[in-house]
Amino acid sequence: MPLYEYHCDDCQADFTLLQSLSTNKDETTCEHCGSSAVKPQLSSCVGKVQGVPRKGVKPATADDYPDKEIFKLPRPRHISEY
């Protein structure tokens, strides 16, 4: 399941949710204040490109992410666990 980032217009909070593709995003509410005045944010993504890695470029680590709370999200369950 993908991660979606939102911004709440009422309490100005930014938060990340683990939602399935079939979830109606219009029904998403703020996890801080419960408001429905949330807007999806453009998230960064990672891709793998074939080729030779550039010299001097180190792999990304958890310290490179601005929002370290994202690592505290629950792990997605496998279909067999439902």
TrEMBL record:
Residues 1-43 form the Putative regulatory protein FmdB zinc ribbon domain. It holds the Pfam family Zn_ribbon_8. It comes from the Bacteria. This is Zinc ribbon domain-containing protein.
